[in-house]
Design brief:
Layout: H1 6-20, H2 25-30, E1 42-49, E2 58-59, E3 62-66, E4 70-76, E5 83-86, H3 88-92, E6 94-101, E7 104-107, E8 112-115, E9 120-127, E10 131-136, E11 148-154
Parallel strand pairs: 1-4, 3-11
Antiparallel strand pairs: 1-2, 4-9, 5-8, 6-7, 6-9, 10-11
The structure holds copper (II) ion (CU).
The site of copper (II) ion has 6 residues, from loops.
């Protein structure tokens, strides 16, 4: 009896794999790649724009993010007036996945968010380039009164 060629053996193995073990090329192609940043674990950070006593501050005002990690920055406004979270240089040095607010999801680059009293927004991003970037509220008088902060992107 003639032994099977390696090609026949391979063919039989693949046939057995596909038919009995449930292998499939489509499954292999659809498998998530570890490099997809939108699938990385999320680190949640909260920042309040003002407070119930209407102090003109960010709470906290100084934040540190590690480059390459994925963050969910939860912004809320517990005060009675509207505020801005304006961080243009910070935004230029990260990859912005999306902002979610209410029933709306905004994808792509974001530099500034306005939050009306009681509003909440979630910003998902991955910091890229290290540095210390300034944060302020653009409502006239608020930055001068202390509504400023620092957003640092660090290596570790
Ligand atoms: Cu403000």
């Amino acid at each position: 009896m003639r032994s099977r060629s390696w090609l026949q053996r391979l063919g039989l193995m693949l046939w057995l794999g596909w038919s009995l073990l449930g292998w499939g090329i489509p499954t292999a192609i659809a498998a998530p790649t570890p490099l997809d940043p939108s699938r990385m674990p999320l680190i949640t950070v909260e920042v309040h724009l003002g407070n119930a006593a209407n102090e003109l501050k960010f709470f906290p005002a100084d934040l540190k993010f590690v480059a390459g990690k994925r963050y969910k920055l939860v912004l809320d406004n517990p005060s009675q007036e509207k505020h801005y979270f304006t961080a243009k240089d910070f935004a230029d040095n990260l990859w912005s996945q999306k902002v979610e607010a209410g029933d709306v999801e905004i994808k792509g680059a974001i530099h500034e968010l306005e939050l009306k009293p009681g509003a909440i927004a979630e910003w998902l991003f991955v910091p890229i380039r290290t540095g210390t970037y300034e944060l302020h509220c653009t409502i006239p008088g608020h930055a001068a009164a202390g509504m400023v902060g620092q957003l640092a992107i660090v290596n570790k």
